Every structure is written in structure tokens, then in C-alpha cells.
Amino acid sequence: MEEKLYLSKYTKVFEKDGVFAYYHSLRMKPIYVNEKFHSTLQILAKNGDKEKSFKDLSNEEKLQAQQIIEVLIEYKIFSNDKDYDEKVITGFRNGLPKPYIQIAYFVMTELCNLACSYCFIENKMDDSIVREKVMTQERAKKGLDFFCRQIRKDETMFKEEKNIIIYGGEPLINFDTLKYLLDLIEQYKVSRKLPDKTNVSIITNGTLLTSEIIKVLKDNNVSIAVSLDGSNECANSCRKFQSGDKAFNDIIKGIETASSVGCNCGLSITLTEESIKDLSQIEAVVDKYNISSLGFNILMTDENFQVSPTYNEEASEFIIKAFELFREKGIYEDRIMRKAKSFSNSKIYLYDCGALGGNQIVIAPDGQVGICHGYLYNREYFPTSIDDDTFDPTTNDVYLEWNKRTPINMEQCIDCEALGICGGGCPQNAKNNSQNKSIWNLDERFCVHAKKTLEWLIWDLYQKTIM
After folding, report:
1. C-alpha angle 297/300/306, rounded to 5°?
2. Distance CA 124, CA 437 (A)
């Protein structure tokens, strides 16, 4: 007598044009069947008995159904073990990696020459709090030494890729310290304080880029990401100078300067309600300036900055369309690419940022060290400083909590079809938009994005299998 089969509670079924995709949200390998086999599988899901479920099939169909079932069992969509679901989620939870620092944000300054209306740092700054807002060279060195101490805490991980991100405010305001830090990074690579695979990038609004600055960045192999909202002044209406003057032309001038000296910038595009209306104009900017990489940011909201009820869905659809467009040009949009890699490798995407997982430090200009740059304004979740020789993320309460904050540990996420590819979104945005102000709430804009992306990935794969 054959063992009874149980449909996993993590199994989700998608349908499009008479094709049904069976998908385990933790195993992430879709199986496609036609309507007749779908009906058979639905019967099997109810009674667990293959013989009874197959009784109305022809001998040839029974053979096909048996082959399909074997694959579904292999991918854990069906199982002979009724307790398998509990075992698998427990296994994933117990297998979470411990916090280990791999990313360092160096905040060169909290000052900025722009005043973007949606800025999740500037708009929350309390000017009554007096603190040093520009990083000195001494603190830059201490910060780099702090990072070096952290990456040595697990020697087995030391040689793995590390990332240093130059951030602000507008980091180019403090270019002297930035240049000093870049020289120091190169020295530390030579002396093996940093691994060879230490990538350095800068996120800048582009308005201060000059040929001299770009040469320094290029000579030090610094990847440049320029923040932009769209491809014209209207789309960039939220991005203005402190004086109120429009910034778009100065941003484009910075990109043009980089392009003229053979330095291809990436774009970090915040999707405003205006910029999501016209993908073709962003395509024109990408083509004109040989943009090397793209990343789209969905607007964060709080009590001071809100978006229309349809924005999250429209922004998610825009990103998918952009991904389809730019991959044909060999340019991959980062936000979807993270999920696409997880999906194609059938490997759970636990965290959507380095803070989640406890993998990053943020070094403020005054030397305070935190886990998330979104909290620069009040230094919440900044548990230590660059002078702390004893700091260990594996024993720190902040880092341990953020390490655990992943969809597989969030009960409100367990039944979601995007459980395996989501990464949990942004804890700051989740906290901003919840009544109890907890990072454990849902980042609802990300729920929309993850679900839409998953469905697109499933049917994009199907199209590739039938071509």
C-alpha cells in the first residue's frame, strides 16, 4: 500500500492562460502542468491517494502523472511526511548565519547641498542636537581600523568579498577626508589588513563631480552611483538645492563630466510618482551616457511624506518593465536581480539589505557606529563607537535582533508566496508605518514588489522553457 501524500502548506499555485505553476515558496522550483493534470493534483491534495486521484486518467496519462508526481515530491511540493513542513522551516531558522560584518558605510558628512523632499534622513534631523557632522581624517582611520577588526573576527570569512560604501549627506562635500580614506584603503590592502576583494563605491548626487574628483575616484577603482529621480526637471521636482533651485541640470553635468573622461556611472534612481510615468526617457539617459548599472528605489513613507494609494503597485510594475528592457542591453537592475538570483539558484533570500542579517556597520561623522544609515538622524540602533575595541556583533542585542528579522521568522510572512525571495524589505520603513513602531512589522510597499516580481519570474521562466 502506497504511503499517503501531503501537499505542502508552502505550495502556491499560479495560473496563466490555462497553464498552472506549482511552486514551493521555500524550494523555489516551479513545475508547470496543464489544466487536466492540475485538476488531478487538486484531487490528490485532498485525498492523498494517487490511485484514487488517477482513476479517470488513461494509461498514458497515468504514466505522465506519475512522472510529474515524482518531480513534485523531489521539489517537496508533495511529501510522504506530514510533518515535513515543520521540519523544513525549523531547519532554515536554525541555519541562519550569525552576524558577521562585510559592509561598511563611511558617512563623510551629514551635510548636503540638496534638500530632497522625500529624504529619509535629512527630513528627520533634529537641529537642536549638537554633534559633529563632518568626518575628520583621524575618525576615518579609526573607522577603517574598526572595520578591519570586525572582519578578522571570523578568519574563515576574511578573504570573502567586502564592501566599503562612501555615503552622506553629500560625501563630496568632505573630499579631503574621502581622498585620505581611499589612500588608506589601498595601503590596507597591500598590508593585508583588508582582503584584495574589497570593493569601494560612492553614492553621490553628482552635482559636485569635477574631472579632478572623478580622476581620483577612477584611479582608486571607486564605483560611482549618481542619485537621480528621472530624466527631466519635472521628474526630479523633489530634488532641489538647499536654496530651492532646481538641481537636475547640475546632476546631468556631473554625469556628462564622468562620461567625458571615460568613467561610466551607475544610477540610483528614486522612483517618484512622476518618474514612473515614462520609462523611455530614463532609457534615453542610460543610452546617452553609457550607464553601467541601475538600481531603483521605491519611495519610503512616514507621517511627513506619503504617496498615492496606487504608487506601490505602479512602481513595482515599472521596475519589472525596466528590468525587461535593460537586460536586453546587458544592464541588470539591482533590485530585481537580487531576487532573480535567489529564484534561479533556488536559494532563500533571507535579507534584502546588509543591516538585516547584522552584516554591516555605519560609521557616523562623529565616530558613532550603528547598523542602519537610516537612523543617522537620531542614532537609534547605534550601539557602539569606533573607539570600542571589544565590540562583537555576535553578542550585541541590536545586531542579534536585526539578524533574526527575516521573513522566515515573521509569522505574518509565513503564508506568503514570496517568502523565499523577499528578504523582508526595509525595517525602517516597516517601523515608520506601523502603530507599534516595530521593525518586525511588514514593509508593505515591499510586499507588493516581492509578490509581483515572483509572479513575473515564474512566467518569465516558463516562456524560456517553451522557446
Report:
1. 130
2. 15
